[in-house]
């Protein structure tokens, strides 16, 4: 069965600090997709990134970067120079590719609190 | 390009009542998903539509739950004889089948059963 573990329940940082959110996943599939979503207090899940299992290149988008390591089944997310607006719950998710559609399995989320 | 919308945003009901939620996906998105999220947890998959066909249902979806997507456009999720355990956020997501498939979520409907 698929599983996503986000061991960090809550992280508090001060503005401008860098912060890394950990994500470890389990799957028997060789083809799968990994996602990160942000859930601000308003409740809507905001898509951040999608990565397939064959693409292990790290990705950077502005202050956000992602480190995908198949060898350790991890897909970690780093925010550089954090800002108060980054405060939210962040979810890592995994989907199979074999079923013909994407049934996302989410972790329990990491709450990030950025103080001014 | 409007996003996914859901209505109502909040619903308070008494145990035993029926409730219905609506989801309007991003136009032309042929896939639609429903998830349920309880406090402190990540969303859990409930059901999936490809156009108007409901192709997958989770075991979480008891027979008190029914979902429809007439004409492959908006979708409704109905809960009959609500129970306190149904209190949760119900999230809808839509996706365009093809390359780089990604689910885009609506704001959710927060249900409280008293």
Descriptive overview:
The complex is a heterodimer of chains A (116) and B (114). Chain A is mostly beta strands. Chain A is built from no helices and twelve strands. In chain A, strands 2, 5, 6, 10, 11 and 12 form a six-stranded mixed β-sheet that branches. In chain A, strands 3-9-8-7 form a four-stranded antiparallel β-sheet, with no helix packed on it. A two-stranded antiparallel sheet of chain A has the order 1-4. In chain A, a hairpin with an 8-residue loop joins strand 10 (88-96) and strand 11 (105-106). Chain A is globular and about 45 Å long. The model of chain A has no long low-confidence stretch (mean pLDDT 93). Chain B has 114 residues and is mostly beta strands. Helices cover 0% and strands 49% of the residues of chain B. Chain B is built from no helices and eleven strands. In chain B, the strands form two sheets. In chain B, strands 2, 4, 5, 6, 9, 10 and 11 form a seven-stranded mixed β-sheet that branches. In chain B, strands 1-3-8-7 form a four-stranded antiparallel β-sheet, with no helix packed on it. In chain B, strand 5 and strand 6 form a beta hairpin. The N and C termini of chain B lie far apart (37 Å). The mean pLDDT of chain B is 93. At the A-B interface, strand 6 and strand 11 of A face strand 4, strand 5, strand 9 and strand 10 of B.
């Amino acid at each position: 069965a698929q599983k996503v573990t986000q061991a960090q329940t809550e992280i508090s940082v001060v503005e401008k600090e860098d912060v890394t959110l950990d994500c470890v996943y389990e799957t028997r599939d060789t083809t799968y997709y990994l996602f990160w979503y942000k859930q601000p207090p308003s409740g809507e899940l905001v898509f951040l990134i999608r990565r397939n299992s064959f693409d292990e290149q790290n990705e950077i988008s502005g202050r956000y970067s992602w480190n995908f390591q198949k060898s350790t089944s991890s897909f970690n997310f780093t925010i550089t120079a954090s800002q108060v607006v980054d405060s939210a719950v962040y979810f890592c998710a995994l989907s199979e590719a074999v079923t013909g559609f994407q049934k996302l399995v989410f972790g329990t989320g990491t709450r990030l609190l950025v103080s001014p | 390009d409007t996003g996914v919308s859901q209505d109502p945003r909040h619903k308070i009901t008494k145990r035993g009542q029926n409730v219905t939620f609506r989801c309007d996906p991003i136009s032309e998105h042929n896939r639609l998903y429903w998830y349920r999220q309880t406090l402190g947890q990540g969303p859990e998959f409930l059901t999936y539509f490809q156009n108007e066909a409901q192709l997958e249902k989770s075991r979480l979806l008891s027979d008190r739950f029914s979902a429809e997507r007439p004409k492959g456009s908006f979708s409704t999720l109905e809960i009959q004889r609500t129970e306190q355990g149904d209190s949760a956020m119900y999230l809808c997501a839509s996706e365009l089948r093809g390359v780089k498939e990604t689910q885009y979520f609506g704001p959710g409907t927060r249900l409280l059963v008293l």
